[in-house]
Write a structure and sequence with these properties.
Length: 80
């Protein structure tokens, strides 16, 4: 099996959320507060891609996108 390149990243929805959050100038704490979610949920999503559909849906709505758009973009990045 060939070794993975050091520059490869296992992309997931959390990475896309982080990019959108930063583009909006929000901290994780601000996103958590504005969505009514616990900060730990935001952190787990961004760090490990762990979240329920309801969590991702609440975040997507705040970031003016949809769950399907987040997923599609993460899949596109993973394919690069």
């Amino acid at each position: 099996m060939p070794e993975r390149l050091l520059s490869e990243i296992d992309w997931h929805v959390g990475h896309v959320v982080r990019r959108l959050r930063l583009a909006d100038g929000l901290t994780q704490a601000e996103l958590a507060e504005s969505t009514g979610l616990a900060l730990s949920k935001i952190q787990r999503l961004e760090d490990r891609g762990e979240a329920t559909l309801a969590t991702v849906g609440a975040i997507a709505a705040k970031l003016s996108t949809t769950v399907s758009a987040l997923t599609a973009y993460a899949d596109k990045l993973a394919a690069l």
